[in-house]
Amino acid sequence: MAILINQETRVIVQGITGRDGSFHTQEMLKYNTKVVAGVTPGKGGSEIFGVPVFDTVREAKNATRANASIIFVPKAFAPDAIYEAIDAELELVVCITEGIPVHEMLKIVSYLKGKKTRLIGPNSAGIISPGKSKVGILPPVAFKEGKVGVVSRSGTLTYEISSHISQAGFGESTVVGIGGDPIVGTNFIDCLKMFEDDPETEAIVLIGEIGGNDEERASEYIKKYIKKPVLAFIAGQTAPPDKRMGHAGAIISGGKGTAQEKIKALNAAGVRVFFEPEEIGRLLCEIFK
Amino acid sequence: MAILINQETRVIVQGITGRDGSFHTQEMLKYNTKVVAGVTPGKGGSEIFGVPVFDTVREAKNATRANASIIFVPKAFAPDAIYEAIDAELELVVCITEGIPVHEMLKIVSYLKGKKTRLIGPNSAGIISPGKSKVGILPPVAFKEGKVGVVSRSGTLTYEISSHISQAGFGESTVVGIGGDPIVGTNFIDCLKMFEDDPETEAIVLIGEIGGNDEERASEYIKKYIKKPVLAFIAGQTAPPDKRMGHAGAIISGGKGTAQEKIKALNAAGVRVFFEPEEIGRLLCEIFK
Amino acid sequence: MKIHEYQAKEFFRKYNIPTPKEKLITNLDEVDLALSELNFPIVAKAQVLVGGRGKAGGVQFCQTPEELKEAVKRILSMTIKNLAVKKLLLAEAVKYEKEFYLGITIDRERRAPVLIASAAGGMDIEEIALRHPEQIVITELSPFLRLKSYKAREVGNVLFSDKELVNKFIEIAAKLTNIFFDYECNLVEINPLVLADRELVAVDAKIVFDDNGLYRHPELEALRDLDAEEKSELLAKQADLSYVKLTGHVGCIVNGAGLAMATMDLIKKYGAEPANFLDIGGSSSPQKMREAMRIILMDKNVRGILVNIFGGITRCDDVAQGLLWALKEEEIKVPIVARLTGTNELEARMLLENSPIVFARTMTEGVKKIVELTRS
Amino acid sequence: MKIHEYQAKEFFRKYNIPTPKEKLITNLDEVDLALSELNFPIVAKAQVLVGGRGKAGGVQFCQTPEELKEAVKRILSMTIKNLAVKKLLLAEAVKYEKEFYLGITIDRERRAPVLIASAAGGMDIEEIALRHPEQIVITELSPFLRLKSYKAREVGNVLFSDKELVNKFIEIAAKLTNIFFDYECNLVEINPLVLADRELVAVDAKIVFDDNGLYRHPELEALRDLDAEEKSELLAKQADLSYVKLTGHVGCIVNGAGLAMATMDLIKKYGAEPANFLDIGGSSSPQKMREAMRIILMDKNVRGILVNIFGGITRCDDVAQGLLWALKEEEIKVPIVARLTGTNELEARMLLENSPIVFARTMTEGVKKIVELTRS
Fold first, then answer.
1. Chain-centre distance of CA D347, in angstroms?
2. What pLDDT score was predicted for residue B213?
């Protein structure tokens, strides 16, 4: 099962001829992801690593029955790439591009209402369902097929924590990087819901960080609807207020969104919060003993 | 039953203190329409014909549990009045105002997608469910409680034809003026569907005119889904091509949208087309004999 | 509101859509000056606000100054569909390989703006649309997002196999879309858009503005060609009446466009021809009726007038007042039949009791009477 | 990017939002010239890019030239939260009856822009928001439609009972919304918006631009206050690194913001304090690592450096190359602990084999080692 992606997912790489796009196309192909097409406007008709390149997403979809895309397009063109994927009615769109202006994202989420597409990101590390498919930039070494669902706002921190889950022998059903920007297409709650419904997932790890209140809302949702055990890690406990920590999302403002508040909310929802990545192995052992 | 409006409809008049708004508020009150509130920005707190006036639709709705509105606001402000009614989540909005720029309507119909509101018009004569309620400017003298559903793009032509339906003794379940503009919120098909489902309606009269292809599409729909007898009148058989006939919608372009084509399509769908308003009485007699 | 090709081309230039080198002239004397800027071959094109100028001989290809002057003289003396040709556009002829069509308009069925394109551009695009719809590409636009380049590319890929041309097409389509939205147009059109020497050039141009949007772009009013509109139609517009002059003998004054068209249809059905379409509109005032009478009486073809009113907002007594006013001020020699139903019907009858106006109780009766009275 | 009050006020004036009469000065000599344009009482306000200037004594109300000069001298010599005050805004004091709050920002929960207003404006709006949320009015905006006047009216009716003031509020809200959208802001704010003599006046102004949107508004770059940013942070920005200087002793270089914050948290957990946040970002190059080392070594508080890399896109051998480069060019006296996992991990180890760098296998081990090595 897994969530969002599996062996059947047929992926278009938007921006396949760019530096990051071509590198990660190779990486995804190595992972046996069904990369069925690439899109670079003006380069349609060519081929890269055996993947046919098209000028537009619609052409690529029509020719290959693709149902998902991953976007490596530079930030100035990424919003259009997202609209294009939405208009082509792809089921899943994963946007890796970072640095998209937040006002563009406001328009995109407004446009998404009532549409068929699920958008992951932007500024996402992508998705991996270990052993099945990878639609993202996550390094496979950190992941192993298993029963823990991971959802995260971060990139490398996700690899770090997942590697401990893998080393402890549990492995992951699916790992989703929802992206670190203030406005993203899919939030914690959306993923929690999918994990709760996924029979392959037996525990959920949520990796949050300071800024916003997505973790607080997720806590309320967990309290009400999630029966599976949830563990959480929150980065940024030592971050000073009002200093930007790289992710646009990680701004503490008006006393809200601090690590302390998030941890309090998670604890109140019965979520076990851990403070050191490698602790996760021991905690999962306790749960599954 | 009737469609769209009945005794329970609670109406806000947007632009109640204007010339047309105040006149027709009186007329609707005379017809026992439940006009529960008026809206004129900046005049909230006053009262007109015993109807309380509010500054905004939301305030009016919250205070009076209104579920519909009728718009008499001048064309420059009418688009905002429509957005306001949509945002206040009214079920039904009837826009009488004519002369709204079509590009404004394009934005409005795009904004309407996925919203709860049904928009009638603009440039509509409104709706009457004889004996029950009137949300419009239609003169009651032409209408009588009965079993014929009437849907029309015109105003006075609707009164003319309805008056013959009434004089012939059949009367109307509901009469809907969908508006004569090229882009309107509700089209023939929407109304045909509602009339088909309405147990009080036993026959349907469709009043079209040249321009666009709403009648042609209605014909296809009738062929497939409408079991009740349908009669139709098409105005503009003598109109020269490419001359504007008052309604922005009534432009014949590229050979499409002529009265001849519409009549052909209607006939092919088994619709009886009549060519003189007073004929309708005799035709209904045949149907109900 | 339609504008002339030369005016539309000015919008194209403002938005950097490639056009041929052109000069507008209004008389023969201006040809020499124009020739100092243009190279032969030159196409002389009549500037009239109706279609079919080509078939009427209003477009001519010229190789020499003599040929051109001959053509200018001839075309400036032409009348195309009742419109005198007063302006002429001289354009350097473009030697092209292929003609395309590109237009943006409002699709009533989709209730959205659409971009329409075809590799089969030229004079007969309407024919193509009817007979070979598969040669027409249509894509829907969002009024909020305008034209996203991938949509233009989808279309361009159907039209061109050369990627460079696709990119040029995308640029032109984006600019044309901006004209469409910036000025609230009903239609912007390039037909033909030609491929010449690896460039795309707009050889003809058409723009139609939404009349309802004009009040938000007051600068467009200056583009109105007053010569091209019937004087009576202009007068009607000033009086806030909707009037179209036609060629029959029965004048008619009606409230509401649908009822007005139905009245015209019925006049025809009973054997006569309407002299006009005239809708006095929703609101009610004797003044409007007075103006309507003045405008109809300007038409010397009119042998009789039918007034057909279904009073709602329009009050029949207001209509009667206006009629009386007209009767007093104008010397009216033609018969008038009035059918006044609805609001204040009785008051109206009383007002007109001693006038020469013939009453009718129904629309059909009114039409029959006026047809009878105007039979020559 | 934040800008100063005086800069935000310039936007307000451009958009016709009423502001008090004001003059910016940078030294005492400019006071006399300013006084030729301003009337007493005057408020002198320190222009610094941090909150709390009022509580720090950076705002002073003055009745006389003497009082004002005294205040100017004092404030210009102040340092507020490590920032030296270099500019001072002199504003005619507005005698007001009531303070309001008006702001537009992005609500992450609603995923939409929101307009926020309160009749309880002034210094403690955050307190009000926490303790009396019912005194705050929030309304959602559409990014396509901006602020429709009925939404502003709904809010205005909550704040004001006087219709005229509601209309003035609607106007100001519309203008503020236009600034917000035109320049892609994260925040535009008037606090307080005061009611004075039946007028609404923006006494303070705050604008924060979305850093990701800045490239589309190059003119805004000129507004950046380079003095207010740490020199090392500016250098980092030029090198495309995300760096924040802090006050601890353990320098850290990490790839990814989340992992960087987690690393800092862990340093603290094991008893030390991080000297900085530094994210070398996703892409990989020895150059970036070299620059990161240079920037960290500028901080004289740093007693040791932890390099924590989970290689994905970032290649560990690139990181190692950058480290070697730095070791060669700089005289490094502090210990370095490196934890390099993931892509090309082995190559990295081989490269660094004979260097003084201490290896760690895990993040926790790396943190423990650097904390140990930097203990004073």
1. 40
2. 86
pLDDT digit string, tens, across residues D64-107? 999 999 999 999 999 988 788 999 999 999 999 999 999 999 98
- In contact, D155 and D170? CB cutoff 8 Å: no
**Average pLDDT of the segment spanning C162-171:** 96
Nearest to C78 by CA among C68, C88, C69: C88
Q: Which residues pair with D247 in a beta bridge?
A: none
Strands B145-152 and B172-177, bridge-based pairing: parallel
Q: How far apart are CA D376 and CA A226, in angstroms?
A: 47
From D142, D154, D167, residue closest to B58, measured CB to CB: D154
What are the angstrom distances between the C-alpha of A143 and each of A32, A131, A162, B16, D259? 15, 9, 6, 66, 17
Q: If you measure CA to CA, which chain A residue comes closest to B115? A: A114
Spell out the domains of chain B, with CATH numbers in brackets.
10-120 (3.40.50.720), 139-288 (3.40.50.261)
Residue C5's alpha-carbon distances to A265, B172, C221, in angstroms, are 67, 50, 16
Chains that touch A (3 or more CB pairs under 8 A): B, C, D
Each residue of D308-345: pLDDT tens digit?
999 887 889 999 999 999 999 988 999 999 999 988 89
Q: Do the beta carbons of residue D129 and residue D136 sit within 8 Å?
A: yes
Token pair in block for residue D314: 């970032």
Selecting among C5, C22, C99, C189, the annotated active-site residue is: C189
Chain D residues close to B44, C-beta within 8 Å: 157, 163
Give the model confidence (pLDDT) of B20-74 as tens digits.
899 999 999 999 999 999 999 999 999 999 999 999 999 999 999 999 999 999 9
- Chain B CB within 8 Å of residue A110 CB: no
Q: Would an 8 Å CB–CB cutoff place A116 in contact with chain B?
A: no
* Structural domains of chain C in order of their starting residue, each with its CATH number: 21-92 (3.30.1490.20), 98-221 (3.30.470.20), 230-374 (3.40.50.261)
Q: Does C260 touch chain B (CB under 8 A)?
A: yes
D189 catalytic residue (yes or no):
yes
Q: Is residue C20 reached through a cis peptide bond, with omega within 30 degrees of 0 on the bond before it?
A: no
Chain B CB within 8 Å of residue C246 CB: yes
Count Cβ neighbours within 10 Å for each residue of A152-179 and write b for 16 or more, e otherwise: bbbbbbbbbbbbbbbebebbbbbbbbbb
pLDDT means per 10 residues in chain D (376 residues)?
96 98 95 94 93 88 96 93 90 95 91 93 77 88 96 96 96 98 95 95 95 95 85 84 92 95 96 94 83 94 96 89 93 94 91 93 96 91
Question: Distance (Å, rounded) from C-alpha A133 to C-alpha A28?
Answer: 8
ipTM > 0.90, yes or no:
yes
The distance of Cα B9 from the centroid of its chain, to the nearest Å, equals 15
